[in-house]
């Protein structure tokens, strides 16, 4: 995503000042050689923020995880973006079938029905929300 490029470049610049901006370094916690340890730290920080914001569980009572961010990103693209499923699936390194089965299952046929019948330029508005 275009907005992420400038953030990535700033992080790389900041890391390179500390001698950590090389190709072999990760974007987050580049000083950690053990990626499992780095993932545990990030997971702990994420869970802490969720607890503080009282967002640990979603509307269905399920615990949120870092993987929930992927789900949220895909759902936003489905609801807000004028993107076809094949392009979205390939960008997410998954299949159209998986998008349909795991992400689009909560969408209804009536959502954004006006887009189907509209021949003008697609709108960027959200017409309905997920229950």
Short description:
The chain has 6 helices and no strands.
The run of helices and strands is HHHHHH
Q: What is the tally of beta strands?
A: 0
Low-pLDDT ranges? 126-131
State the shape: globular
Mean pLDDT comes to 84
Percent in helix: 40-55%
Look at the helices and sheets and give the structural class: mainly alpha
Output the radius of gyration: 19 Å
Report the biggest beta sheet as strand number plus sense, adding barrel if it closes: none
Task: Tell me the span between the first and last alpha carbons.
Answer: 27 Å
Treating each run of at least 4 consecutive H or I residues as one helix, how many helices?
Answer: 6
Strand proportion, as a percent range, falls in: under 5%
Protein described:
Helices cover 52% and strands 0% of the residues. It is mainly α and 131 residues long. The chain contains 6 helices and no strands.
Give structural attributes.
mainly alpha; single chain; 131 residues
Question: How are the SSEs placed, and which strands pair?
Answer:
Elements: H1 2-17, H2 35-52, H3 67-80, H4 85-91, H5 96-103, H6 113-117
